[in-house]
Each structure stands twice: as C-alpha cells, then as structure tokens.
Amino acid sequence: MTNIQVNQRLSIAIDTPEGEKNILSYVREVYPDRLVLTRPQDWEENISFLEEGEEVKTKIFTRVGVLLYTAVILNSPADDNFTIEYNENFAQILQRRAYTRVSLETIVDCSYDELIKAEVINNTATSDFVEFSAPLSCEFETKIVEAETIDIGGGGLRIKTKEDLPRQKSITFKINLFDDIIVAQGVIVENNSLPEHQYGVQFTKISNDDRDKIIKTCFKIDAILNRKTD
User: Which residues contact residue 182 at a Cβ distance below 8 angstroms, ignoring those fewer than 6 apart?
Assistant: First the structure.
C-alpha cells in the first residue's frame, strides 16, 4: 500500500453499450483494504455502471509505475464518498517506472537472517504408514556483509562485496547516501553477466521519502556530469 498516495490519478474502465470507457478520478483517502476517491469525470451520466457491487478495472499511476487491478465498488459516487476495495495481493505493476541510474561509490551494509540450527522439539516415534510434520525449533542469527555501490537508482542498485550474498532471500540494505542513511529491503536479481561478487538489487520495500532522496541525488549527479561534458 505504500505505493499508493493521496491525489494520485486513477483510471476506471467501465463496460458500456458503446464499449469500454475510461473515466478519471483521484485518490482522496487510503486505507489498508479500500480507497476513497473523488467523484470521477462524467459520473452522473455513467452512474448505472458505478453502482455498489460492480466490478471495475482500475489503473493507478504511482511512483513505481502503473498499478493494475480489478476492484469492487463499495460506495457509488452518488453518495459523495466514492469507495472501491483494494487488495495489494491482487495488484500488479503493469508498467514499471524507469529510474535514472548513476555511478556512485558509497558504503552499504547488507544484513539478512541466516539459519544456524534447527532441531525437532518432540522426538516422538515415527510410523511407516503415517506422514506428519514434526515441529522444529529454529535458531537464526543476523549476518552483515559490507558492500560498496557501483551504481544506484530509485528502483535498486548494483553492489560489489567480498562475500557471497544469498539469492531468493530478502536482504536489508543500509546505504550511506551523503548526509542521509537510506534503509531498504530488496532481493538479488539474477544476472550471469556480472563478475563474481557483483550483484544487481531490486528494491522490494522502501519508503517514498527514501526513494525520493535517491532520485533527487541521481538527478543532481546526472546534471553535474552533463555540465562537465557540455
């Protein structure tokens, strides 16, 4: 839900006898399970397609790209409290925003939980005929790997380390960005063309403020480099 904010533009597709029609609205309020919207354009002439319980296809234009999902109308715009359901588990990025990436060398701490011990809690007798799952006691420790950035952008970064980093595991990245410390979660993106101990990272969880700080920093660096080449 962190990708959706108040005042973001939203397109609603409705099926009319003349075919599919897209009408525009804006996000007024954001809740974990629903969105309150402004009355869409031409809502009065399309009110029969915007009744409670109707399913509509929506596109929300967010900072990370165009978010696409099918929603059920909870309150029609006739109530002046136009509300649709929202479930982020069924939403998908239709078009991911392309972020400016710039070369930048800075220190990054990469941390993740590593399983160090797992043992069965109750060592009961097993049966040759019944399968069951034994409860486990698991012990983890947080491992920290120091890395250095090669380049960075609003959607992720490329780093180099002296140690291996795990694939298919969420990693927390603490990035020293000049006067700011950026904390984001991400995953390693498979790229066999990179040298050993170089990794491409895609952010999976980052605050909008931290993403904006990265984007603004990239724009500043890009502008400085362009002035030098002019």
Answer: 173, 174, 175, 206, 210, 213, 214
The pTM assigned to this predicted structure is 0.55
Residue 19, class by beta-carbon neighbours within 10 Å (0-12 exposed, 13-18 middle, 19+ buried)? exposed
Contact 97, 65 (CB under 8 A): yes
Angstrom CA distances, 72 to 56, 93, 168, stand at: 6, 19, 33
83 band by pLDDT with thresholds 50, 70 and 90: very high
Q: Per DSSP, what are the bridge partners of residue 188?
A: 201
Q: What phi and psi values does residue 90 have, to the nearest 5 degrees?
A: -110, 5
104 pLDDT above the threshold of 80: yes
**What does the pLDDT read at residue 219?**
85
Domains present along the chain, CATH in parentheses: 9-96 (2.30.110.10), 102-116+133-229 (2.40.10.220)
Dihedral sign of CA atoms 51, 53, 56, 60 in order: positive
Flag whether pLDDT at 54 surpasses 70.
yes
Q: How far is CA 99 from the centre of its chain?
A: 14
Residues 212 and 64 sit within 8 Å (Cβ to Cβ): no
Q: Is the dihedral of CA 143, 210, 205, 191 positive or negative?
A: negative
The rounded distance, in Å, linking the Cα atoms of 185 and 2 is: 13
